[in-house]
Amino acid sequence: MMDIVYFEELFFTLAFIIYIIASLGFFVFLVSSKEKVGKFSVIASSIGFAIHTIAMILRIIESGRLPFSNQFEFANSFTWAIVLCYLVIHHKYKFTAVGGFVMPLAFLMMGYASMLPKTIKPLMPALQSRWLTIHVGTAIISYGSFAVAAGLSLMYLINERNKDKEKKSSHLPDAEVCDYLSYRVIAFGYLMLTLVIITGAIWAKKAWARYWGWDPKETWSLITWIIYSTYLHLRFNRGWKGKTAAWFSIIGFLCVIFTFIGVNVLLPGLHSYR
Amino acid sequence: MIKKIGKFMIGFRFAIILFIVIAIYSIIGTVIPQGATKEFYLHNYENFGNIILLLEFNKVYSSFIYRALLFLFLVNITGCTIKLLPSQLARMKEDYFPAPSKNIENIWDEKYDTEEFRKVLEKKGFKTYKGENGFRAAKNRIGVLGSSVTHLGIIIIILGSFLGNMFAYEGFVNLLPGESTTFVKQGFTLRLDDFYLGFREDGSTEQYYSELKIIEEGKEVESKKIWVNNPLKYKGINFYQSSYGWISDLTIKDKEGNILEETRLKNSQHYFYQPKHLTVYLYGYYPDFAIDHSGQPVTITEQKNHPHYAVVLYEYGNYVDSFITAPGEPIYYEDLEISFDDSRLYTGLTYRRDFGYYFVLIGCLVMVMGLFLSFYFYPRFVIVEEGTILPITKQNIWGYTMQLKNLLSSTLSNRGEV
Ligand code: HEM
After folding, report:
1. Is pLDDT at A51 greater than 90 in this prediction?
2. Contact B30 A177 (CB under 8 A)
3. Rounded CA gap, B316 and B370, in Å?
4. For residues B4 and B144, what is the distance between their CA atoms, to the nearest angstrom?
């Protein structure tokens, strides 16, 4: 058992370091436009992801369940999902620059995870449900997508600013592409978020007799959902694009982060069994 | 005037306003503590306290204002959907084909073979229509209903939860093993055969188990062991494992050992012994007693490794003394012997019957289907004529254009191979 814990921590730290290197690499790529540096960063991200995955698998073996039950495990899985979503987008669209805006988010989230207590605790009774797996599984995918969307929106905003300066950097994909892609990624994340809320309600019904109880976490997930609903409606019906949409996407992601971290720290709720 | 208001009420702008107002009101509910006493708000928020009470920020989610907002939302979304539906149904028909807007990218190139392209489109599920000098193709017409289906799902959810809550039947009951409670209207009795905790090796609690029996007309009709996340369901009522506690026997004797009083107390309950104006307050029972770093009594586990009671005495309402005692160990007070013993676990069961839940589930299913239609099965059209290939869609023109470009280049590679 001791060995597994040791290797898990080793791989976790290794992945963390590689993510930092990848982020720095992307930064150099953005500044210098050297194709090779960009390629190197993508490869580093992939290797980091593979090592991170091993660390996750070791933890799953160690605890005998999915790593979805305390703040450390959730932050860790969240990071994993951000990198996963990034790599999927990368392999589909091949926009190297996206990494420069997403990998820093991943390494920040992992940095947050590394500050949390890592002890493996058995699941408390209310968490012993297969709905937990689906609920948290969809949550990390949804949050990961919103992170990638926010990165794309940031990229769009920077692109827009550069446009005036006449030295439009060639390695950033077109502003329009960023704009559309972030919309599509948000649509996917929104669908996932809807599933998160639904599976959460089903689980709450089984554990606490009510499917919705206005617990701060529940309420904030609803608020996040309303924000993205507004985004989608304004975009679809009012043709909202560009700057406003990009800012909205970034605000939405801040809301996601608050739901994820802020609520736990500032607004204690009922997510415990007494 | 009234027409104008009506139009606004089911209009898009009002929907956005409602979204924002509901979001802000919900946020307030997570920032200001909910359900406390009036004095609490007046005391802690000073002048703002009155505003809190006036705008019902002390009970946001059950307030009149919140319900009114939800009602307006319901009117808005229903009206909006009904207003849209006819045009959507018209757009689903075979003879509808949208006109291209001006800023559409023409993805035609003379290297493409349009006949080959038509075949590929048909393989991909497009329906093609012959035109004067080319053809048109369409796919996923059904997707136009996506938003309406989504909205319908939401309407079902809101109505279902409203009605469900209105007719919900719920309550809470504490039972000791052997005790039962009768549901007169439903005509059955619920009996608790046993209640116990499951422990892990390290002594921490793993699960809470209640063994329940349903008795109808003297006959046992159902029996089930329930735990958290695994309720018992009978006649539409769900029984949930939701809490537990310890109950202890209190004995008061005189000097000679004659029993003066015998009763049962839960933690934080008190007993008033009239002859002496003495209040015996059971602060808590600690099966595995310890003192934490702030000097408070705590229990390390729920196993009876080191049981103790924390007891406080009051006379005429004034504090007298507090004690930590073992089971059966008497506290001497004047000429009385006060002791606690025989602590047993009782279970806390929540029960609830709520048909609204099933409506909510159906609504969720409908909503998710609608979202899939909107995002992934949106209608796609294309006009192919000599010199023009125009992709047309409302939802995702960029992704769709890219998709068609890929399809077009696949026709090239097909040709290359032959
Ligand atoms: C929380 C509630 C709501 C949800 C989840 C929701 C969801 C959706 C979705 C997913 C779409 C498709 C948009 C896209 O593909 O980008 C849509 C479209 C639309 N929604 Fe909503 N909606 C909600 C409330 C409302 C309300 C209250 C109105 C009332 C005015 C409204 C009006 C519309 C309109 C006009 C469309 C465009 C329909 C079309 O032209 O096909 N929505 N909605």
Report:
1. yes
2. no
3. 67
4. 28
The whole-angstrom separation of Cα A200 and Cα A221 is: 10
Residues of A in contact with B227 (CB under 8 A): 125
Where is average pLDDT lowest: A65-69, B72-76, B82-86, B243-247?
A65-69
Residues with CB under 6 A from ligand 1: A 229, 232-233, 236-237; B 12, 15, 76-77, 80, 84, 146-147, 150-151, 154, 371, 374, 395
First-last CA distance in chain A: 31
Helices and strands in chain B, H and E counts? 9, 20
Report the pLDDT value the prediction gives residue B368, as an integer from 0 to 100: 97
Cβ(B349)–Cβ(B241) under 8 Å?
yes
DSSP string, B77-99: HHHHHHHHHHHHHHHHSTT--PP
Which amino acid, residue B305? N
H or E stretch covering A170: none
Give the closest residue (by CA) to ligand 1 atom 19: B147
Please tell me which of the candidates B207, B231, B396 has its beta carbon nearest to residue A184: B396
Q: Do A209 and B15 touch (CB under 8 A)?
A: no
pLDDT tens digits along A37-50: 989 999 999 999 99
Tokens read off for B338? 């006060």
Tell if the CB–CB gap between A216 and B30 is shorter than 8 Å: yes
- Number of Cβ atoms within 10 Å of the Cβ of B115: 10
Residue nearest to atom 39 of ligand 1 (CA): B147
Contacts A–B by Cβ distance under 8 A: 102
**HSE-up of residue B9 (Cα within 13 Å, Cβ side):** 15
Question: Taking the CA atoms of chain A, what radius of gyration do you get in angstroms?
Answer: 19
Q: Give the nearest chain A residue to B238 (CA atoms).
A: A209
Dihedral angle of Cα B4, B5, B11, B14, to the nearest 10 degrees: 140
> Do residues B125 and B139 touch, judged by C-beta distance below 8 A?
yes
Looking at beta carbons, which residues of chain B come within 8 Å of A236?
Answer: 394-395
**Nearest CA distance, A14 vs chain B (angstrom):** 32
pLDDT higher at B371 or A174: B371
CA atoms within 13 A on the CB side of A223: 27
Q: Supply the pTM of this predicted model.
A: 0.86
User: CATH fold of B247-343, please?
Assistant: mini-chromosome maintenance (MCM) complex, domain 2 (2.60.320)
Averaged pLDDT score across all residues of chain A: 86
Residue of minimum CA distance from atom 11 in ligand 1: B147
d(CA A122, CA A18): 30
What CATH fold (topology level) applies to the domain B94-99+108-140+379-418?
TATA-Binding Protein (3.30.310)
User: From the CA of B145, how far away is ligand 1's center (Å)?
Assistant: 11
Render pLDDT for B66-81 as a digit per residue (tens, 0 to 9).
Answer: 999 999 999 999 999 9
Q: Which residues of A touch B15 (CB under 8 A)?
A: 233
Q: Residue A21: helix, strand or coil by DSSP?
A: helix
Contact B26 A219 (CB under 8 A): yes
Within A165-239, where are the H helices?
A: 175-208, 216-237
Alpha helices, H only, B47-191: 47-54, 64-92, 114-123, 146-167
What is the interface pTM, i.e. ipTM, of the complex? 0.88
Question: B377 near B164, Cβ under 8 Å?
Answer: no
Query: What's chain B's length in residues?
Result: 418
| pLDDT tens digits along B266-283 | 998 999 988 888 899 999
Q: Which ligand 1 atom sits closest to the C-alpha of B367?
A: 5
To the nearest whole Å, the CA of B8 is away from the closest chain A CA by 16
pLDDT digits (tens, 9 = 90+) for A191-235: 999 999 999 999 988 888 889 988 888 899 999 999 999 999 988
